[in-house]
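Running co-folding for pyridoxal-5'-phosphate.
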Amino acid sequence: MLGLNNTVSQQLNFYGNTTPTKLVEQYGSPLYVYNEEVFRDRCRELKDLVTYKNFQVNYSVKANSNLSLMKLAHEEGLKADAMSPGEIYVEQMAGFKSSDILYISNNVSSEEMQFAIDRNILISVDSISQLETYGKINSGGNVAIRFNPGVGAGHHEKVITGGKKTKFGVAISDIPKVKVLLKTYNLYLVGINQHIGSLFMDGDKYIEGAMSILNVAKEFDNLEFIDMGGGFGIPYQKLASQGRLDLVNLGERLDKVLHEFATEYGSEVTFKIEPGRYIVAESGILLGTVHSIKENFGITYVGTDLGFNVLKRPVMYDSHHDIEVYRSENIPSQNSHPVTIVGNICESGDIIAKDRLLPQILHNDILGVLDVGAYGYCMASNYNNRLRPAEVLIDSNGNPKLIRKRDTLEDLVRGFVL
Ligand SMILES: *Cc1c(COP(=O)(O)O)cnc(C)c1O
């Protein structure tokens, strides 16, 4: 197999004992491929972020809720966040105990709250009115609250979840109301959390966010935990030598802030973070096949099976994903030139990479879309009645293992009532 532009997967030995072309032959195209070692490394990096003893990493499984990957996270000693009863359901299947799970709810029904209460899972509520709903059905119980201290960060307006322009969290000015409701319903506030947004590459905002939630924490006695949120970014532009988030520097600064707070607060409170993307993004590569190459009005279109039904991020957030090229025969490419890589969905917006300078791509080449482990498969759909791809894990011995089957045509009609 000939690899072009493939320094990233090569350095990681991402495909172990197999190759992209063999994987596609065996499991079909498109195909999500994950690497166990990369996944485990990221879990460990974040577990070691600080020296502060009571520190917990909650994997935010909405980034990728494949059962096999969740089991790896569990094996690595991570805990988990849930955003829905469905996530609670699969987390318990993956081995997480009730006490390992924090249900970070947003505008949910009392039935959904009850689902968590019945399973002894702590809920974090996201508004005054949700706190009241909770109080009515679980008076005397434990509760957590998500605050929005006014700091936001993120790579796109749609994923900035703190600050003055988002639907999330309880405003600081509502703290007096919170206190009244806690008293009215005899609720015990065990923890507070926040999540300022997704994909920061510079620790300053995170530290700023952490300091603001710690200020909120001072308003409440006897908290068991303070959760500072996720959003840790990964370099999506590796081929342009984009640097990594400096976790050593961030960790050192955070450590200092946490120790100082614990001393002042007078208890060894638990600190949590809730990373999704950082844990899983880089452990995933999406493989697809080139089926057509054409030139329309001066633009070269590379037509593939990588529609936005398979990977939605480029269309949804204008996201950049680096692309590698693999070829079964040893035919070298001519010069690089700009191409636009598109999928097979019936919409003009179905573009996975625009104006990308890549080695000449040939019919039947396999493309590898990098860093798709997070918000990749979980956002895939059956749009255009296409089948969602299979998922394969390259295990620690370098061998591929199927961890989710490709959809079948029968899956498309499951649930229809005639
Ligand atoms: C999505 C989300 C996360 C994880 O975000 P990442 O950017 O993937 O780290 C953490 N906490 C909450 C509340 C979220 O909604």
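Result summary
The longest strand covers residues 284-296.
The chain has a mean pLDDT of 96.
Job closed.
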